[in-house]
Structures are given as C-alpha cells and as structure tokens.
C-alpha cells in the first residue's frame, strides 16, 4: 500500500491491529476487533472514526454564497453562520456528481465537504465554474484531519477535549447540522453535530498535525465510556441501517437525487436556480421514473449491490446496498426500482436463485436517528 495516501493516524492504526485496505486512494482501517463488535460500540456507547480521506474546500469572498448556491441543489443563502446544510451537486442533466455538506462559517466564508472518491471531480467542477472575481477556493484536504465521534456518549466525550481545545464546551448547545469554530492546537478547529451513523455524534475538523494528539486524548479520556476505534466496515453497516446514501451505491451520475430519495434537499424554486435544475424540474413534472425502497430478504444469502430486483419475470431494478443489519438482526437491502413497481411483490436474484422479499419502511432504524434531517425526511 506504499503508493496510497495515508492519514496522520496511519501508523497508529497499524500499531493497534487494524486491517488496512485501499479506499478512494487512501490506506484506511476497515476493522480492528470485528464489524459486529465495532457496530455495537457505536450503537451502545461511543466510537472514533478516522475519516481524513474526506475532501475539504474552503470558499471565501463577497460572492461566495451566491456562487455556491448556483452549484448545489439545496438552499444555503438564508442560513446563519453556524449552519450546516446537506445537499447534492448535479451536472446539467440532473445526474448526481456528489452529495456533500456545506458549512457557513461566516457571512462570506464557507466549507464544502465532499466524498473522498469524488474529490478530484468536484474540485475540478468547482474550478471550472469559478467566477473571474469575488470568490476564492482553498483546497485544504491534504492538511486537514477529520475525526468522527459517534454514539450515545459522544457529547460527554467531546466535552472532555476541553483540556486540549478549551473552547469546545459549547458543543452541548449544538443542534443537528450546526457547528462551532474554535482555536485549538495548530489553528482552527471546526466541531459540528453531524455524522454518518444514525447516532448522536460530532465531526471534528482540525489541522492534520494536531490529529494524533486529539485522537489519543479522546481515547484516554473516554476509557470509562468504553470508547473504541471503529473501521470503515462498521461505518457502512451503521449508515446502512439509518439509510444514508453512499455515493456509488444510492447516488450516481446515472440517476438524479430525486430518484435516490433525497428530493427534500432539492429546492427547485430557488430564485437563482442551479446547474441541473431544469432537468430535475422536467423529471419531476413528467413523473420520477425510479425510486429507492427498502427490502427484507426472506431466506437465502444476503442480496448485495447489483443483484437484480424482479417483479415476476421482469427485471424492474437492482440492489444498491445490501447487508446483514446487526442491530435489527435481519438481511436487508436498499433497491432502486421502477416507480410503478415500488409497492409490488418483488424478488431479488442472488447467485442465480430468486429470493422472496417484503417491503421495509425507510429508514430501517428510525428511532435511532430522530432529529437528523436526512433520516427524518426519509420517513415522509
């Protein structure tokens, strides 16, 4: 893995027994003690994730907000500093380039956080549409560390960082999708009440050089809480139970955010419009052709990504994500299907065998994610 990018915690992961894999060009820990144990730690206590592979671009200037608004589907202009917005960025045909978080740091300064696999594509897209003046872009991905602290005890644990970063105390007042920026070792730290697990949690953006000290401080101060490091495998099962989209699975340039179930983050009536708006409006008016549904597989193996979904002998869609949901103890799947068959009796084909399914409401684990706009909207 010598040719892969490494996070500031790379050697720590190796020294503590992590199994490392390639992910989006990075060497990343996929698991430490096992997926089921790590999943349970986050559901029942608190876990730490190294997610430094994510991309961070700061945007600044008097025209930054209006320019960003023209690139994304959701509305950000009316949000006060301190707000975080979940949104998507589309091409002219309405295909999803990426889903992302937008932080409003000040009146004229913003942070765009994108998926690691789409970093180069999104940075290039933004640069291609950058105005001649009034906006500057600063790709800080290579110098930014990112720690996710997730689980019922996450607020208690992050509050204990005060010895290292004295101004984190106000986290107790943070609502979902809000953040604070504070001075910490190495420079600016941004702490937000966000996450990708369906649990109460926080994400901490900090200078890469300060990351190891912060990571070890969290582990030491959270020993009584049962804190553990968590790998990418459990991150996936956790997000799956909460039915959060994963780019390349539930989101793609081949289909729109309306089809992927995040239409609540698409504001077609935004006054200034955005790239892809006309295509999305036309699709909505004509009738959204496909929709994301939840299925429980009755018997047989797990239905993994790409497995065909059938109504009788007709293939009407495919599985986007499928796994054994540890909290629910069931084999579940997310599937993108033709809308006319969204409520039909469906089967999935796994290894040449057709398996019966029954419909499950989204999100699968609703009670765990109350208050999170992505999951709460999925119930409607």
How would you characterize the overall build of this protein?
It is a single chain. This protein is α+β, with helices and mostly antiparallel strands and 380 residues long. It has two domains: 1-287, 2-Layer Sandwich (Gyrase A, domain 2); 289-378, Elongation Factor Tu (Ef-tu), domain 3 (Beta Barrel), CATH 2.40.30. The chain has nine helices and 19 strands. Strand 11 and strand 12 (201-207) form a beta hairpin. Helix 2 (35-44) packs across helix 7 (232-241). The protein starts with 9 loop residues before the first helix and ends with a helix. Residues 376-380 have low confidence and may be disordered.
Give the CA-based shape: globular
Tell me the CATH superfamily of the largest domain.
Answer: Probable tRNA modification gtpase trme, domain 1
Could you name the CATH topology of the largest domain?
A: Gyrase A, domain 2
The number of distinct β-strands equals: 19
CATH architecture of the largest domain: 2-Layer Sandwich
**Strand percent estimate:** 25-35%
Record the strand order, biggest sheet: 10-11-12-9-3-13
| Average pLDDT rating | 93
Oligomer: single chain
Largest sheet: 6 strands, mixed
Task: Count helical runs.
Answer: 9
Please provide a brief summary of the model:
The protein has helices spanning about 10-15, 35-45, 65-70, 120-130, 155-160, 210-220, 230-240, 275-285, 375-380; strands at about 20-25, 25-30, 45-50, 55-60, 85-90, 95-105, 110-115, 135-140, 145-150, 180-185, 185-190, 200-205, 230, 290-295, 310, 315-325, 330-340, 345-350, 355-360. By secondary structure, the chain is of the alpha+beta class. A hairpin with a 2-residue loop joins strand 15 (about 310) and strand 16.
